[in-house]
């Protein structure tokens, strides 16, 4: 039988980074064995629904190449199906109508167990500890407790991967599956992602939405690679995975029981890596929406190769290239020599033609000291892209202006 998984987000706002992880796991589990990955929009909590959020779910999944098979199932279009299921439960004596709502009758003194295929252990509850569960609200809308079993059954889902918040509700779902005579799918809950500051990763503590990460200039490839390793690891210690490689390597034995920690430095590392995999042309195209500092298209194209190695997020572009746009200040106490700068002015052509090194040496100067003076005068910083290439992009005229202006400032000081 082929594996069928689903991603079942609620359209209640931007997608949480943890949901992207859930989607990627469900996708890989299905696709690894040539199965199907389905999408279900869980929009039965009309009060929490945010306009436009469903479209954003489609957009985000497409951005990450997590394409779904078959037409998405939209719960609000299936109310009659849930209402019928609730009636069947009443008729079989497993639910009661209670002031307009329909509630599950929880049997006394039963043990309810299942094997969590992600955490790879058995979990059991005593039925007397299970809280009352509404299945259908008085407005005719189902709760998740009813809609989930009905839909997973109708969609032929074989494996459910969902966030660990749902683990305590699992016995309710197991009962509903049983009372509706549905076969229980495999259910698994990847462990919760922790914030480096402690506790669960949450909105309160900072950015958690996929959209925000994209807006800050993280590449989808990097975000995806980062999230799949939050709670899953391959047999070897390999870290770099395209989606395709993840799918072909995927193995449920790779799920980890310990809670992963959201390490932004690691995410930055992935992003830097994927940025450097891009061609200069691709990167120029990607960076453009983030450029606010008025560099022209030609200038962006020229500058990209110079800063590519230092670019961590696309949004760092402005800061790294600010000195191309405005003449920098000379930092106080900078080690810059007016003599070096005067020499640079006279020998500007030799600098731009990469023929300056011997001339510097014949002055008895250290090459590094000379270039440090140039860096500070031209870029206002000790840390710059390759300085000759930078001056070539700035042009001879602007480079000379900066050298002269620095000499002027150094004299006044
Ligand atoms: N709508 C639920 C959520 O977003 C889905 C849980 C599930 O995957 O079954 O948490």
UniProtKB/TrEMBL annotation:
GO terms for cellular component: cytoplasm. It comes from the Bacteria. It catalyses: tRNA(Glu) + L-glutamate + ATP = L-glutamyl-tRNA(Glu) + AMP + diphosphate. A motif ('KMSKS' region) lies at residues 200-204. A motif ('HIGH' region) lies at residues 9-19. It is an enzyme of class 6 (ligase). It is found in: Cytoplasm. GO terms for molecular function: ATP binding; glutamate-tRNA ligase activity; tRNA binding; zinc ion binding. SUPFAM superfamilies: An anticodon-binding domain of class I aminoacyl-tRNA synthetases, Nucleotidylyl transferase. Residues 282-407 form the Aminoacyl-tRNA synthetase class I anticodon-binding domain. CDD domains: GluRS_core. ATP binds at residue 203. Pfam families: Anticodon_2, tRNA-synt_1c. Its EC number is 6.1.1.17. One of its GO terms (biological process) is glutamyl-tRNA aminoacylation. Residues 3-98, 101-269 form the Glutamyl/glutaminyl-tRNA synthetase class Ib catalytic domain. Keywords: Aminoacyl-tRNA synthetase, ATP-binding, Cytoplasm, Ligase, Nucleotide-binding, Protein biosynthesis. Catalyzes the attachment of glutamate to tRNA(Glu) in a two-step reaction: glutamate is first activated by ATP to form Glu-AMP and then transferred to the acceptor end of tRNA(Glu). Monomer. PANTHER family: GLUTAMATE--TRNA LIGASE, GLUTAMATE--TRNA LIGASE, MITOCHONDRIAL-RELATED. Belongs to the class-I aminoacyl-tRNA synthetase family. Glutamate--tRNA ligase type 1 subfamily. This is Glutamate--tRNA ligase. It comes from Candidatus Amesbacteria bacterium RIFCSPLOWO2_01_FULL_48_25.
């Amino acid at each position: 039988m082929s594996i069928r998984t689903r991603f079942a987000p609620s359209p209640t706002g931007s997608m949480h980074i943890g949901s992207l992880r859930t989607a990627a796991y469900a996708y890989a589990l299905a696709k690894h064995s040539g199965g199907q990955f389905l999408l279900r929009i869980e929009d039965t909590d009309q009060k929490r629904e945010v306009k436009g959020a469903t479209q954003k779910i489609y957009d985000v999944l497409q951005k990450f190449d997590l394409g779904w098979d078959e037409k998405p199932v939209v719960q609000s279009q299936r109310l009659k199906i849930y209402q019928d299921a609730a009636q069947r439960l009443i008729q079989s004596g497993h639910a009661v109508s209670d002031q307009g709502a329909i509630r599950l009758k929880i049997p006394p003194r039963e043990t309810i167990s299942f094997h969590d295929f992600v955490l790879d252990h058995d979990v059991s509850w005593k039925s007397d500890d299970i809280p009352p569960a509404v299945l259908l609200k008085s407005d005719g809308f189902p709760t998740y407790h009813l809609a989930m079993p009905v839909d997973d059954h109708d969609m032929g889902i074989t494996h459910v991967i969902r966030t660990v918040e749902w683990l305590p509700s699992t016995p309710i779902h197991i009962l509903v599956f049983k009372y509706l005579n549905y076969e229980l799918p495999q259910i698994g809950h990847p462990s919760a992602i922790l914030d480096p500051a402690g506790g669960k990763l949450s909105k309160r503590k900072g950015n958690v939405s996929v959209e925000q990460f994209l807006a800050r200039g993280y590449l989808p490839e990097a975000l995806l690679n980062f999230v799949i390793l939050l709670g899953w690891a391959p047999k070897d210690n390999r870290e770099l995975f395209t989606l395709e490689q993840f799918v072909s390597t995927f193995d449920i034995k790779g799920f980890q029981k310990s809670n992963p920690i959201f390490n932004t430095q690691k995410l930055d590392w992935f992003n830097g890596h994927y940025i450097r995999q891009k061609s200069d042309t691709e990167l120029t195209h990607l960076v453009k929406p983030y450029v606010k500092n008025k560099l022209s298209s030609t200038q962006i194209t020229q500058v990209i190769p110079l800063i590519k190695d230092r670019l961590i997020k696309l949004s760092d572009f402005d800061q790294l290239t600010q000195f191309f746009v405005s003449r920098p200040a000379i930092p106080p106490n900078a080690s810059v020599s007016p003599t070096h700068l005067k020499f640079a002015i006279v020998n500007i052509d030799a600098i731009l033609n990469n023929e300056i090194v011997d001339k510097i040496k014949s002055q008895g100067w250290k090459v590094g000291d000379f270039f440090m003076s140039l860096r500070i005068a031209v870029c206002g910083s000790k840390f710059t892209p390759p300085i000759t290439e930078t001056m070539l992009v700035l042009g001879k005229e602007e480079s000379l202006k900066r050298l002269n202006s620095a000499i002027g400032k150094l004299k006044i000081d």
